[in-house]
Automatic annotation (TrEMBL):
This is GAF domain-containing protein. SUPFAM superfamilies: GAF domain-like (SSF55781). InterPro entries: GAF, GAF-like_dom_sf. Residues 23-149 form the GAF domain. Pfam families: GAF (PF01590). It comes from Aquimarina rubra.
Amino acid sequence: MLFEDLKPKVVDILKNESNSVTDRLHQICQLLNKTITYYDWVGFYFKNGDKEELKLRTYVGEETDHTIIPFGKGICGQVAVSNENFVVPDVQAQDNYIACSFTVKSEIVIPLFKNGENIGQIDIDSETPDPFTEKDERFLEFVNQEVAKILE
Ligand code: SME
C-alpha cells in the first residue's frame, strides 16, 4: 500500500475519541505493522515525566526488555537529545545501539514534537537490511504530526 493511501487511515484512527489515546496509538502501530511489510516492530516511546529517559507506551511486534531507555543510549536515546531523524540501514554498524532481537537488521526513529518540544518518538525495527527511504521519513513525520494533535 502506498503511504498516501495510509495517511487517511492514520487520521481516521486518531480522530476516534471513543478510544483512549494509548489505544489509538496502538492501532497506528497495528496498521503500520500490518500494511508495510518491512515494519516488523513498531512502537511509540515518550519522555518519562521529568526524567531524562524514554518510556515505551505501546508497540506491536516481539516483546522487548527495553521499556525504559535513558537519554543518549541506543538509537532511541540519541534521537531524544538530537531532535533529528535517525535512519540506520545496518544496526550492526552502530556502536551506540540497544539490540532487541538478533533478527533485526535496520531501524528508523523519528522524533515527535509537540509545540516545538521533542516529547517522544516512533521507533521501527526491520528484519530487512537497508529498507528505509526518504518516503518513510516523510510519512512517519506526518504520522507524528497527527499524533501530536491528540496529545495533551
Ligand atoms: N534498538 C533501539 C532500542 C529499542 S528496540 O528497537 C525496541 C535503540 O537502539 O535505541
